[in-house]
Amino acid sequence: MTTSTSQLTTLFIVVALVCAFVPAFSVEEGEAKTLWDTCLLKITPKCALDIIGVVFGNGTITDACCHDLVEEGKVCHDTLIKYISDRPHLVANETQYLKKRDDLWTHCVSVTKTA
Questions:
Q1: Smallest Cα–Cα separation from 14: which of 104, 102, 92, 90?
Q2: CA 106 to CA 66: how far, in whole Å?
Q3: Which residues form the signal peptide (predicted)?
Q4: Is the C-alpha dihedral spanning 15, 31, 44, 78 positive or negative?
Q5: How far is residue 99's CA from residue 49's CA, in Å, rounded to a whole number?
Q6: Using an 8 Å Cβ cutoff, are 104 and 84 in contact?
Q7: Cα–Cα distance between 80 and 47 in angstroms, integer?
Q8: Burial of 109 by CB count in 10 Å (0-12 exposed, 13-18 middle, 19+ buried)?
Q9: What is the pLDDT of residues 89-114, one digit of tens each?
Q10: DSSP state of 86
Q11: pLDDT tens digit sequence for 17-76
């Protein structure tokens, strides 16, 4: 159990670092700043990690984080997850990650409609 927890923690740290640096290297500087200003600042760091955990692992997400995700918007969610999944060490499973991204979005929209 400790090994699994340690691996999951390491995965979150790596993906969080990728999130921090990918926009700066994948898109033009002005576009990266726009993404940062309009997307990443709309959700809490914990919710961002939960979202990453759901898409790139076997994490779970709270209803509150779903509300934050929907508030962030589909374009932001899709774009940021796509940037992460395009990394060389993740691209082999990109189709799976994009499906999980879309499934998460559908789930969160349904959660916000029932609240």
A1: 90
A2: 10
A3: 1-20
A4: negative
A5: 18
A6: no
A7: 14
A8: middle
A9: 888 999 999 999 999 999 999 999 88
A10: T
A11: 445 444 444 445 566 567 767 777 778 889 989 999 999 999 999 999 999 999 989 988
Q: How far apart are CA 34 and CA 57, in angstroms?
A: 27
Q: Where are the domains of the chain?
A: 27-113
- Identity of the amino acid at 24: A
In one letter, which amino acid is 70?
Answer: V
Q: Could you tell me the two tokens for 14?
A: 């790596």
Q: Distance between CA atoms of 66 and 86, rounded to whole angstroms?
A: 24
Burial 12-49 (b: 16+ CB within 10 A, else e): beebeebbeebbeebeeeeebeebeeebbeebeeebbb
Helical axes 2-26 vs 29-38, angle rounded to 10° = 130
Q: How far apart are CA 55 and CA 23, in angstroms?
A: 18
